[in-house]
Design goal:
479 residues, alpha+beta, Immunoglobulin-like, Neutral Protease, domain 2, eight-stranded mixed β-sheet, Peptidase_M1
Protein backbone atom coordinates (compact mmCIF):
# COMPACT_ATOMS: atom_id res chain seq x y z
CA UNK A 1 0.00 0.00 0.00
CA UNK A 2 1.15 3.51 -0.71
CA UNK A 3 -0.83 6.55 0.31
CA UNK A 4 -0.92 9.48 -2.05
CA UNK A 5 0.12 11.59 0.94
CA UNK A 6 3.43 9.77 1.45
CA UNK A 7 6.34 11.73 -0.07
CA UNK A 8 9.53 9.93 -1.01
CA UNK A 9 12.80 11.80 -0.91
CA UNK A 10 13.91 10.30 -4.28
CA UNK A 11 12.73 9.93 -6.93
CA UNK A 12 -4.42 -13.64 -24.81
CA UNK A 13 -5.48 -15.13 -21.67
CA UNK A 14 -6.87 -18.61 -22.46
CA UNK A 15 -7.89 -20.78 -19.56
CA UNK A 16 -9.61 -24.16 -19.40
CA UNK A 17 -12.21 -24.34 -16.68
CA UNK A 18 -11.64 -28.06 -16.31
CA UNK A 19 -7.93 -27.53 -15.68
CA UNK A 20 -8.62 -24.89 -13.06
CA UNK A 21 -11.17 -27.08 -11.32
CA UNK A 22 -8.34 -29.37 -10.30
CA UNK A 23 -6.93 -26.55 -8.17
CA UNK A 24 -9.96 -26.38 -5.86
CA UNK A 25 -9.63 -28.12 -2.49
CA UNK A 26 -11.10 -31.59 -2.26
CA UNK A 27 -12.77 -33.32 0.67
CA UNK A 28 -11.74 -36.76 -0.53
CA UNK A 29 -8.84 -36.98 1.91
CA UNK A 30 -10.95 -36.34 5.01
CA UNK A 31 -10.70 -39.03 7.68
CA UNK A 32 -13.95 -40.98 8.10
CA UNK A 33 -15.77 -40.98 11.43
CA UNK A 34 -13.13 -39.13 13.48
CA UNK A 35 -13.21 -39.76 17.21
CA UNK A 36 -15.11 -37.01 19.07
CA UNK A 37 -12.89 -34.88 21.33
CA UNK A 38 -13.05 -35.54 25.04
CA UNK A 39 -12.66 -31.92 26.16
CA UNK A 40 -13.28 -29.49 23.30
CA UNK A 41 -12.32 -25.86 23.71
CA UNK A 42 -14.04 -22.59 22.94
CA UNK A 43 -12.10 -20.83 20.17
CA UNK A 44 -10.70 -17.43 21.16
CA UNK A 45 -12.38 -14.34 19.68
CA UNK A 46 -9.04 -13.10 18.28
CA UNK A 47 -5.95 -14.62 16.71
CA UNK A 48 -3.68 -12.89 19.24
CA UNK A 49 -2.51 -9.68 17.54
CA UNK A 50 -2.58 -6.85 20.11
CA UNK A 51 -3.07 -4.15 17.47
CA UNK A 52 -6.60 -5.42 16.71
CA UNK A 53 -7.53 -8.00 19.36
CA UNK A 54 -10.75 -9.07 17.60
CA UNK A 55 -9.08 -9.77 14.24
CA UNK A 56 -8.91 -13.43 13.35
CA UNK A 57 -10.02 -16.23 15.64
CA UNK A 58 -8.39 -18.88 17.77
CA UNK A 59 -8.20 -22.56 16.81
CA UNK A 60 -8.81 -22.15 13.06
CA UNK A 61 -6.79 -22.62 9.90
CA UNK A 62 -8.87 -21.68 6.86
CA UNK A 63 -7.69 -23.65 3.84
CA UNK A 64 -10.00 -22.26 1.17
CA UNK A 65 -12.70 -19.62 0.66
CA UNK A 66 -15.48 -20.01 -1.91
CA UNK A 67 -17.28 -16.66 -1.95
CA UNK A 68 -20.39 -15.85 -3.99
CA UNK A 69 -21.80 -12.31 -3.79
CA UNK A 70 -24.46 -10.29 -5.63
CA UNK A 71 -24.46 -6.49 -5.48
CA UNK A 72 -27.46 -4.25 -6.22
CA UNK A 73 -26.48 -0.67 -7.07
CA UNK A 74 -30.05 0.60 -6.67
CA UNK A 75 -30.41 -0.53 -3.06
CA UNK A 76 -26.76 -0.78 -1.99
CA UNK A 77 -27.48 -4.31 -0.78
CA UNK A 78 -24.88 -7.06 -0.94
CA UNK A 79 -26.10 -10.66 -0.65
CA UNK A 80 -23.49 -13.34 -0.13
CA UNK A 81 -22.57 -16.88 0.77
CA UNK A 82 -19.11 -17.79 2.00
CA UNK A 83 -18.07 -21.43 2.13
CA UNK A 84 -14.92 -21.93 4.17
CA UNK A 85 -12.88 -25.13 4.22
CA UNK A 86 -11.62 -25.04 7.82
CA UNK A 87 -9.00 -27.21 9.50
CA UNK A 88 -9.28 -26.83 13.29
CA UNK A 89 -5.98 -26.52 15.13
CA UNK A 90 -7.68 -27.60 18.37
CA UNK A 91 -10.79 -29.53 19.36
CA UNK A 92 -13.50 -26.87 19.33
CA UNK A 93 -16.99 -26.79 20.81
CA UNK A 94 -17.45 -23.26 19.50
CA UNK A 95 -15.54 -21.00 17.14
CA UNK A 96 -15.74 -17.56 15.57
CA UNK A 97 -15.42 -15.77 12.26
CA UNK A 98 -15.17 -12.08 11.36
CA UNK A 99 -18.15 -10.58 9.50
CA UNK A 100 -19.86 -7.20 9.77
CA UNK A 101 -23.05 -7.94 7.81
CA UNK A 102 -26.20 -9.52 9.32
CA UNK A 103 -26.16 -13.34 9.11
CA UNK A 104 -29.13 -15.48 8.05
CA UNK A 105 -27.82 -19.07 8.03
CA UNK A 106 -24.81 -21.12 9.13
CA UNK A 107 -24.12 -24.79 8.46
CA UNK A 108 -21.15 -26.94 9.44
CA UNK A 109 -20.60 -29.93 7.15
CA UNK A 110 -24.17 -29.58 5.89
CA UNK A 111 -25.81 -29.48 9.32
CA UNK A 112 -27.45 -26.33 10.72
CA UNK A 113 -25.37 -24.68 13.43
CA UNK A 114 -26.37 -22.33 16.23
CA UNK A 115 -24.95 -18.84 15.82
CA UNK A 116 -25.11 -15.34 17.24
CA UNK A 117 -23.27 -12.03 16.97
CA UNK A 118 -22.10 -10.87 20.40
CA UNK A 119 -20.54 -7.86 18.66
CA UNK A 120 -21.04 -6.46 15.17
CA UNK A 121 -17.66 -7.75 14.00
CA UNK A 122 -17.91 -11.21 15.61
CA UNK A 123 -19.86 -14.21 14.34
CA UNK A 124 -19.97 -16.94 17.00
CA UNK A 125 -20.80 -20.47 15.79
CA UNK A 126 -21.70 -23.57 17.80
CA UNK A 127 -21.79 -26.73 15.64
CA UNK A 128 -24.01 -29.69 16.47
CA UNK A 129 -20.87 -31.70 17.19
CA UNK A 130 -17.46 -30.38 18.28
CA UNK A 131 -14.83 -29.88 15.61
CA UNK A 132 -11.95 -32.35 15.75
CA UNK A 133 -8.42 -31.06 15.52
CA UNK A 134 -6.90 -31.67 12.08
CA UNK A 135 -10.20 -32.78 10.49
CA UNK A 136 -11.41 -30.48 7.69
CA UNK A 137 -14.99 -29.20 7.77
CA UNK A 138 -17.02 -26.99 5.46
CA UNK A 139 -18.60 -23.95 7.08
CA UNK A 140 -21.25 -22.14 5.01
CA UNK A 141 -22.39 -18.65 6.04
CA UNK A 142 -25.27 -16.78 4.39
CA UNK A 143 -25.57 -13.03 4.93
CA UNK A 144 -26.90 -9.78 3.45
CA UNK A 145 -26.89 -6.05 4.14
CA UNK A 146 -25.67 -2.62 3.11
CA UNK A 147 -21.87 -2.49 3.71
CA UNK A 148 -21.77 1.29 3.24
CA UNK A 149 -23.61 1.76 6.54
CA UNK A 150 -21.07 -0.18 8.60
CA UNK A 151 -17.83 0.89 10.27
CA UNK A 152 -15.26 -1.02 12.29
CA UNK A 153 -12.11 0.09 14.10
CA UNK A 154 -12.83 3.64 12.96
CA UNK A 155 -12.90 2.59 9.31
CA UNK A 156 -15.70 2.84 6.74
CA UNK A 157 -14.30 0.80 3.88
CA UNK A 158 -17.12 0.46 1.35
CA UNK A 159 -16.24 2.40 -1.82
CA UNK A 160 -19.19 2.76 -4.15
CA UNK A 161 -20.42 5.19 -6.79
CA UNK A 162 -23.33 5.25 -9.20
CA UNK A 163 -21.78 2.57 -11.42
CA UNK A 164 -18.71 1.17 -9.62
CA UNK A 165 -17.99 -0.62 -6.36
CA UNK A 166 -14.46 -1.58 -5.25
CA UNK A 167 -13.64 -3.61 -2.13
CA UNK A 168 -10.18 -2.32 -1.36
CA UNK A 169 -8.72 -1.56 2.06
CA UNK A 170 -5.98 -2.28 4.58
CA UNK A 171 -5.67 -3.43 7.34
CA UNK A 172 -9.36 -4.39 7.12
CA UNK A 173 -11.67 -5.08 4.19
CA UNK A 174 -12.85 -8.69 4.26
CA UNK A 175 -15.59 -8.47 6.94
CA UNK A 176 -17.53 -5.95 4.84
CA UNK A 177 -18.23 -8.60 2.19
CA UNK A 178 -17.29 -12.13 3.32
CA UNK A 179 -16.98 -14.26 6.44
CA UNK A 180 -13.28 -14.56 7.25
CA UNK A 181 -10.55 -15.44 9.66
CA UNK A 182 -9.31 -11.93 9.13
CA UNK A 183 -5.58 -11.79 9.83
CA UNK A 184 -2.54 -12.03 7.50
CA UNK A 185 -1.27 -15.00 9.50
CA UNK A 186 -4.07 -17.23 8.14
CA UNK A 187 -3.78 -17.34 4.35
CA UNK A 188 -5.93 -19.47 2.04
CA UNK A 189 -6.79 -20.05 -1.60
CA UNK A 190 -9.87 -18.35 -3.02
CA UNK A 191 -12.73 -18.75 -5.47
CA UNK A 192 -14.64 -15.48 -5.86
CA UNK A 193 -17.90 -15.27 -7.84
CA UNK A 194 -19.58 -11.91 -8.40
CA UNK A 195 -23.05 -11.27 -9.86
CA UNK A 196 -24.06 -7.84 -11.15
CA UNK A 197 -25.46 -6.04 -14.19
CA UNK A 198 -24.67 -7.77 -17.48
CA UNK A 199 -23.22 -4.54 -18.92
CA UNK A 200 -20.61 -4.43 -16.13
CA UNK A 201 -17.36 -6.34 -15.65
CA UNK A 202 -16.39 -8.05 -12.40
CA UNK A 203 -12.64 -8.05 -11.68
CA UNK A 204 -10.91 -9.96 -8.89
CA UNK A 205 -7.71 -11.80 -7.95
CA UNK A 206 -6.01 -14.57 -9.88
CA UNK A 207 -7.45 -15.78 -13.18
CA UNK A 208 -10.96 -15.62 -14.63
CA UNK A 209 -12.65 -19.01 -14.83
CA UNK A 210 -16.05 -18.32 -16.37
CA UNK A 211 -18.59 -15.59 -17.13
CA UNK A 212 -22.26 -16.56 -17.41
CA UNK A 213 -25.12 -14.36 -18.63
CA UNK A 214 -28.58 -14.82 -17.12
CA UNK A 215 -31.03 -12.26 -18.40
CA UNK A 216 -29.92 -8.80 -17.29
CA UNK A 217 -27.23 -10.16 -14.98
CA UNK A 218 -23.76 -11.61 -15.40
CA UNK A 219 -21.95 -13.91 -12.98
CA UNK A 220 -18.15 -13.95 -13.12
CA UNK A 221 -15.95 -16.51 -11.39
CA UNK A 222 -12.29 -15.83 -10.49
CA UNK A 223 -9.82 -18.20 -8.86
CA UNK A 224 -6.61 -17.66 -6.87
CA UNK A 225 -4.61 -20.87 -6.69
CA UNK A 226 -1.99 -19.54 -4.25
CA UNK A 227 -2.56 -18.65 -0.58
CA UNK A 228 -3.72 -15.08 -0.04
CA UNK A 229 -4.31 -12.80 2.93
CA UNK A 230 -7.91 -11.81 3.55
CA UNK A 231 -7.31 -8.07 3.18
CA UNK A 232 -5.70 -8.68 -0.22
CA UNK A 233 -8.81 -10.42 -1.61
CA UNK A 234 -10.99 -8.02 -3.59
CA UNK A 235 -13.56 -7.55 -6.27
CA UNK A 236 -14.48 -4.57 -8.41
CA UNK A 237 -17.76 -4.29 -10.28
CA UNK A 238 -18.25 -1.58 -12.88
CA UNK A 239 -17.75 -0.60 -16.51
CA UNK A 240 -14.11 -1.07 -17.49
CA UNK A 241 -11.82 -1.00 -20.48
CA UNK A 242 -10.11 -4.39 -20.17
CA UNK A 243 -6.84 -5.61 -21.70
CA UNK A 244 -5.71 -9.23 -21.49
CA UNK A 245 -2.17 -10.08 -22.56
CA UNK A 246 0.72 -12.31 -21.57
CA UNK A 247 4.47 -11.90 -21.28
CA UNK A 248 6.84 -14.85 -21.06
CA UNK A 249 3.88 -17.07 -20.22
CA UNK A 250 2.60 -14.84 -17.39
CA UNK A 251 -1.01 -13.74 -17.93
CA UNK A 252 -1.88 -10.07 -17.40
CA UNK A 253 -5.34 -8.60 -16.87
CA UNK A 254 -5.77 -4.83 -16.57
CA UNK A 255 -8.92 -2.76 -16.21
CA UNK A 256 -9.56 1.00 -16.33
CA UNK A 257 -12.83 2.54 -15.17
CA UNK A 258 -14.90 4.07 -17.96
CA UNK A 259 -16.16 6.62 -15.45
CA UNK A 260 -12.81 8.43 -15.70
CA UNK A 261 -12.38 11.24 -18.25
CA UNK A 262 -11.18 9.92 -21.62
CA UNK A 263 -7.74 11.53 -21.35
CA UNK A 264 -7.22 10.03 -17.91
CA UNK A 265 -8.39 6.62 -19.13
CA UNK A 266 -5.84 6.74 -21.95
CA UNK A 267 -3.00 7.66 -19.59
CA UNK A 268 -4.06 4.95 -17.14
CA UNK A 269 -4.08 2.25 -19.83
CA UNK A 270 -0.65 3.35 -21.07
CA UNK A 271 0.74 3.27 -17.55
CA UNK A 272 -0.67 -0.18 -16.77
CA UNK A 273 1.03 -1.56 -19.89
CA UNK A 274 4.35 -1.10 -18.05
CA UNK A 275 3.31 -3.78 -15.55
CA UNK A 276 4.88 -6.68 -17.46
CA UNK A 277 8.26 -5.02 -17.94
CA UNK A 278 8.45 -3.87 -14.32
CA UNK A 279 7.47 -7.32 -13.07
CA UNK A 280 10.19 -8.87 -15.25
CA UNK A 281 12.79 -6.49 -13.78
CA UNK A 282 11.67 -7.29 -10.24
CA UNK A 283 12.14 -10.98 -11.00
CA UNK A 284 15.80 -10.33 -11.80
CA UNK A 285 16.25 -8.97 -8.29
CA UNK A 286 13.80 -10.98 -6.17
CA UNK A 287 13.36 -14.31 -7.91
CA UNK A 288 10.41 -15.80 -9.80
CA UNK A 289 7.08 -14.00 -9.72
CA UNK A 290 5.04 -15.85 -7.07
CA UNK A 291 1.56 -15.95 -8.63
CA UNK A 292 -0.44 -17.08 -11.66
CA UNK A 293 -1.20 -13.65 -13.13
CA UNK A 294 -0.42 -9.97 -12.87
CA UNK A 295 -2.12 -6.73 -13.89
CA UNK A 296 -3.90 -3.85 -12.21
CA UNK A 297 -7.10 -1.84 -11.97
CA UNK A 298 -7.55 1.92 -12.08
CA UNK A 299 -10.71 2.97 -10.29
CA UNK A 300 -12.78 6.14 -10.49
CA UNK A 301 -13.50 5.94 -6.76
CA UNK A 302 -11.76 8.37 -4.41
CA UNK A 303 -9.60 5.82 -2.63
CA UNK A 304 -6.73 8.10 -1.58
CA UNK A 305 -4.16 5.30 -1.83
CA UNK A 306 -3.08 2.38 -3.99
CA UNK A 307 -3.28 -1.15 -2.63
CA UNK A 308 -1.39 -4.29 -3.60
CA UNK A 309 -4.32 -6.71 -3.94
CA UNK A 310 -2.73 -10.03 -4.81
CA UNK A 311 -2.06 -10.27 -8.58
CA UNK A 312 -4.06 -7.12 -9.29
CA UNK A 313 -3.19 -3.85 -7.50
CA UNK A 314 -5.79 -1.10 -7.44
CA UNK A 315 -4.73 2.46 -8.27
CA UNK A 316 -6.62 5.73 -7.67
CA UNK A 317 -5.87 7.19 -11.11
CA UNK A 318 -3.09 6.70 -13.67
CA UNK A 319 -0.14 5.30 -11.65
CA UNK A 320 3.30 6.85 -12.00
CA UNK A 321 6.23 4.53 -12.59
CA UNK A 322 7.36 4.58 -8.95
CA UNK A 323 3.90 3.66 -7.71
CA UNK A 324 3.74 0.74 -10.15
CA UNK A 325 7.09 -0.51 -8.86
CA UNK A 326 5.92 -0.15 -5.27
CA UNK A 327 2.68 -2.10 -5.65
CA UNK A 328 4.23 -4.78 -7.87
CA UNK A 329 7.09 -5.24 -5.38
CA UNK A 330 4.39 -5.94 -2.80
CA UNK A 331 3.55 -9.10 -4.72
CA UNK A 332 6.72 -10.49 -3.14
CA UNK A 333 6.74 -8.39 0.05
CA UNK A 334 3.30 -8.47 1.64
CA UNK A 335 1.37 -10.79 -0.65
CA UNK A 336 3.68 -13.81 -1.04
CA UNK A 337 5.65 -13.18 2.17
CA UNK A 338 3.00 -11.78 4.49
CA UNK A 339 3.07 -10.37 7.99
CA UNK A 340 3.25 -12.55 11.07
CA UNK A 341 1.93 -9.58 13.07
CA UNK A 342 0.83 -6.10 12.08
CA UNK A 343 3.76 -4.62 14.03
CA UNK A 344 6.05 -6.08 11.32
CA UNK A 345 4.56 -3.91 8.56
CA UNK A 346 7.87 -2.28 7.67
CA UNK A 347 8.67 -5.63 6.04
CA UNK A 348 5.92 -4.76 3.54
CA UNK A 349 6.13 -1.02 3.12
CA UNK A 350 9.84 -0.42 3.70
CA UNK A 351 10.76 -3.20 1.28
CA UNK A 352 8.38 -2.00 -1.46
CA UNK A 353 9.68 1.57 -1.05
CA UNK A 354 13.27 0.34 -1.26
CA UNK A 355 12.48 -1.39 -4.56
CA UNK A 356 11.29 1.97 -5.90
CA UNK A 357 14.71 3.40 -5.06
CA UNK A 358 16.54 0.39 -6.52
CA UNK A 359 14.50 0.62 -9.72
CA UNK A 360 15.21 4.34 -10.07
CA UNK A 361 18.91 3.66 -9.54
CA UNK A 362 18.91 1.35 -12.57
CA UNK A 363 16.73 3.57 -14.73
CA UNK A 364 18.37 6.98 -14.75
CA UNK A 365 17.99 8.07 -11.13
CA UNK A 366 20.60 8.69 -8.42
CA UNK A 367 22.38 5.79 -6.79
CA UNK A 368 20.54 4.28 -3.86
CA UNK A 369 23.44 5.25 -1.58
CA UNK A 370 23.16 8.88 -2.68
CA UNK A 371 19.45 8.66 -1.96
CA UNK A 372 20.13 7.22 1.49
CA UNK A 373 22.55 9.94 2.50
CA UNK A 374 20.24 12.66 1.20
CA UNK A 375 17.23 11.14 2.94
CA UNK A 376 19.07 10.95 6.25
CA UNK A 377 20.34 14.51 5.98
CA UNK A 378 16.85 15.78 5.12
CA UNK A 379 15.39 14.15 8.23
CA UNK A 380 18.15 14.89 10.76
CA UNK A 381 16.12 17.58 12.49
CA UNK A 382 12.75 15.80 12.32
CA UNK A 383 12.01 14.41 15.76
CA UNK A 384 8.76 12.65 14.81
CA UNK A 385 10.51 10.75 12.01
CA UNK A 386 12.94 9.07 14.41
CA UNK A 387 10.52 8.55 17.26
CA UNK A 388 8.53 5.90 15.40
CA UNK A 389 9.70 2.44 16.49
CA UNK A 390 9.56 0.48 13.25
CA UNK A 391 9.49 -2.83 15.13
CA UNK A 392 6.34 -1.72 16.99
CA UNK A 393 4.88 1.50 15.56
CA UNK A 394 1.43 1.05 17.10
CA UNK A 395 -1.89 0.43 15.36
CA UNK A 396 -2.38 4.12 14.64
CA UNK A 397 0.98 4.51 12.89
CA UNK A 398 1.35 1.44 10.70
CA UNK A 399 1.15 3.71 7.65
CA UNK A 400 3.34 6.48 9.06
CA UNK A 401 5.75 7.87 6.42
CA UNK A 402 8.66 6.74 8.59
CA UNK A 403 7.55 3.11 8.19
CA UNK A 404 7.96 3.48 4.43
CA UNK A 405 10.97 5.73 4.15
CA UNK A 406 13.04 4.69 7.16
CA UNK A 407 12.28 1.08 6.32
CA UNK A 408 13.73 1.64 2.85
CA UNK A 409 16.70 3.50 4.31
CA UNK A 410 17.40 0.54 6.60
CA UNK A 411 17.59 -1.81 3.64
CA UNK A 412 19.92 0.41 1.65
CA UNK A 413 22.16 0.87 4.68
CA UNK A 414 22.19 -2.91 5.13
CA UNK A 415 23.06 -3.32 1.44
CA UNK A 416 25.98 -0.96 1.80
CA UNK A 417 27.21 -2.66 4.97
CA UNK A 418 27.07 -6.33 3.91
CA UNK A 419 27.77 -5.84 0.20
CA UNK A 420 25.87 -6.12 -3.05
CA UNK A 421 26.14 -9.87 -3.59
CA UNK A 422 25.14 -10.84 -0.05
CA UNK A 423 22.32 -8.30 0.08
CA UNK A 424 20.52 -9.48 -3.05
CA UNK A 425 21.09 -13.08 -2.00
CA UNK A 426 19.39 -12.16 1.27
CA UNK A 427 16.28 -10.77 -0.45
CA UNK A 428 16.04 -13.69 -2.87
CA UNK A 429 16.43 -16.19 -0.03
CA UNK A 430 13.78 -14.38 2.00
CA UNK A 431 11.26 -14.46 -0.85
CA UNK A 432 12.11 -18.07 -1.73
CA UNK A 433 12.13 -19.64 1.71
CA UNK A 434 8.97 -17.83 2.89
CA UNK A 435 7.08 -17.97 -0.41
CA UNK A 436 3.31 -18.06 0.29
CA UNK A 437 4.03 -17.87 4.02
CA UNK A 438 4.71 -15.20 6.63
CA UNK A 439 7.70 -13.41 8.12
CA UNK A 440 8.75 -11.31 11.10
CA UNK A 441 11.41 -8.73 11.86
CA UNK A 442 13.25 -11.22 14.06
CA UNK A 443 13.28 -13.82 11.26
CA UNK A 444 14.61 -11.31 8.73
CA UNK A 445 17.39 -10.15 11.06
CA UNK A 446 18.34 -13.77 11.77
CA UNK A 447 18.55 -14.54 8.04
CA UNK A 448 20.58 -11.38 7.40
CA UNK A 449 23.11 -12.43 10.06
CA UNK A 450 23.38 -15.93 8.63
CA UNK A 451 23.95 -14.80 5.06
CA UNK A 452 26.28 -11.92 5.91
CA UNK A 453 28.22 -13.71 8.65
CA UNK A 454 27.90 -10.54 10.75
CA UNK A 455 26.29 -9.76 14.08
CA UNK A 456 23.61 -7.16 13.23
CA UNK A 457 21.71 -6.55 16.47
CA UNK A 458 23.13 -3.06 16.91
CA UNK A 459 22.63 -2.19 13.24
CA UNK A 460 18.92 -3.07 13.24
CA UNK A 461 18.34 -1.49 16.63
CA UNK A 462 19.94 1.75 15.43
CA UNK A 463 17.92 1.97 12.22
CA UNK A 464 14.59 0.57 13.36
CA UNK A 465 14.25 1.54 17.01
CA UNK A 466 16.54 4.38 18.12
CA UNK A 467 14.77 7.77 18.42
CA UNK A 468 17.60 9.65 16.69
CA UNK A 469 19.37 9.69 13.31
CA UNK A 470 22.00 6.94 12.86
CA UNK A 471 25.55 8.23 13.12
CA UNK A 472 27.28 8.48 9.71
CA UNK A 473 29.52 5.48 10.32
CA UNK A 474 30.58 2.42 8.35
CA UNK A 475 28.83 0.10 10.80
CA UNK A 476 25.58 1.96 10.12
CA UNK A 477 26.03 1.57 6.37
CA UNK A 478 26.59 5.28 5.76
CA UNK A 479 30.31 5.35 4.87
Amino acid sequence: MRSRAVRLVAPVLVLAVTALAALAPSSAARPSNPMPPARPQVGASGIGDPYWPLDGNGGLDVRHYDIAVRYDFDTGRLTGTTTLRVRPTADLSRFGLDLLLPVSTVTVDGRPATFDKPARHELRITPQEPLVRGTDVDVVVGYAGDPSRISYAGESRWLVGADEVVTVGQPHMAPWWFAANDHPRDKATFDITVTGPASYQAVSNGLPVQRTLTGAEATTHWRSAHPMTTYSAFFALGRYDVEQTSRAGLASYTAVSRSLPSSERSRAATSLRRTGAITAWLETRLGPYPFESTGGLVTSQRVGYALENQTRPVYPGPPARGLLVHELAHQWFGDSVSLQRWRDIWLNEGFATFMEVAYAERHGGPSAQQWLRGARDDQVGSRWFWRVDLTDPGAGRIFDPAVYQRGAMTLQALRHRIGERRFWRLLRTWTHDRRHGTGSTWAFRTLAERISGQQLDDFFSTWLREPRPPAPTRSNGLH
